[in-house]
Structure prediction request, 264 residues.
Amino acid sequence: MAKILVVDDDRMICDLLQAVLSRHGHEVLTATDGERGLELYQQHRPGITLLDFRMPKMDGITVLRRIRALNPEASVVMLAGGGTEALEARARELGVTDFLRKAASLEALVGAMERGLQAPAPSAAAPQAGRAAQRMPAESEAAESILIVDDEEMIRGLLTKFLTRKGYRVRAARNGEEALAMVKQEAPRMVILDMYMPGMNGVEVLRRLRAGHYTGGVVALTASQDEQLLQQTLDLGSVDVMGKPVDLERLELVIQVCLVLTGS
Prediction:
């Protein structure tokens, strides 16, 4: 078991990575800003730090530079989702251990953690193994099925195209009744469910899914900030509630984490 520090201003990202890495036996500390991240680093001296590029007040490059001042051999993996080529070049100059896209598979995430724990900080000229982490899901992951439920054709098409390219087996339903029938025919590992649809809204669909003993993961989509509806969705066991337009990179990470947490 290793001690891992996750520093990302997105609390959901921190919670998801903590859930995944804890499941693999690691002790995980989280911080949602650079200053707190440095405090935790000084107090706990983690075996590896997973660090976001872009954060308010103190960005990832500044945090990396200060960690290097504290420990030149520290293992640090940068989350490359928010980094430009210039930022990545600067991180290499500071001896970053690895790069990892936020949308990478969980296998790639755990692999990057293991590489970081085993290897010393590379020199600026060293090749970055993290580039290999930017891949499609493995064959076993590609078999995972996802059902998209949304009355908007454009959103159904966008999500279907995106997730199919990522290697998932995707079906789509235009409304709640159609979705329930498709789940009865073949239960997917995950459902991506719009909350506002004519006839039967997403909360009712989710309620009926749970009543029918559906145990897969559910990600709710909504363009509203209706607190009561959001709470109902969470009470019925949705993994996450995401706003529209959908952040595809974050959706990919949520799906990967959900598949691990709901796996047998």
Observations:
- The longest strand covers residues 217-222.
- The radius of gyration is 20 Å.
- The CA atoms of residues 44 and 94 lie 22 Å apart.
